[in-house]
From TrEMBL:
Coiled coil: none annotated. This is glutaminase. The active site is at C99, H206, E208. Belongs to the glutaminase PdxT/SNO family. L-glutamine binds at G67, E68, S69, R129, I161, R162. GO terms for molecular function: glutaminase activity; lyase activity. Keywords: Glutamine amidotransferase, Hydrolase, Lyase, Pyridoxal phosphate. CDD domains: GATase1_PB. Its EC number is 3.5.1.2. GO terms for biological process: pyridoxal phosphate biosynthetic process; pyridoxine metabolic process.
Amino acid sequence: MVHINNEDVNNNEVNRSRRFHFGILALQGAFQEHIHMLQNIPQVSSAIPIRKVEQLATIDALIIPGGESTTMALIAERSGLMEPLREFVRSGKPTWGTCAGMILLANEANKTKKGGQSLIGGLDITVNRNQFGSQIDSFESALRIENVTTSSDHLFPAVFIRAPIISSINSPDIEVLARLEHNVGETDTSAIVAVKQDNLLATAFHPELTNDDRLHKYFVQLTQDYYYTGKKEK
Ligand SMILES: NC(=O)CC[C@H](N)C(=O)O
């Protein structure tokens, strides 16, 4: 093994060669696809399924996948993961929620089952679950995404499956990254479908179900920036 003496090398360069450990919450839903997508990105050292509390300490960043947010929350409660997940998010470490994962990261959710549902929280947004109803169960839409698609680029192929939308932004710290490009049923182009707040990212759709890894690369970049430029504790 090559030993690098930190004092001989510019500290920054040493840090910038670092690769990162990603965890994907694997209680239910589309976690395997996220793992595959991350594994092909050079800066990713590992992408592991997270099922136990102690695994959270081994990762630099977390993805909460799509699936069924009520089921995921129930399993998380039962396996004692809910509070440690909240703690992970509170620590400021990069976390990305897709679809059901976005619902879980929201501080508030509408159209929840009777009695509400428990959330991890962290993002100052309100989400509307199942925004598109059963008539339009799933659809694909090409999106412009801030920081991810450039004007010369092709748009992002976003797959929406019983998707939520962000119905309200409750803090000036929320950056809107994407809105619907076309009306879908009753939902018009004002509907917000991707946001960022510090190191928290949320998308209403499923980027892991496409061949387009731009959002995964963006999340890896966010993780790099977080560990290179100092942690922004909240
Ligand atoms: N594709 C998805 O993740 C669907 C989310 C699901 N409708 C929920 O409320 O949790």
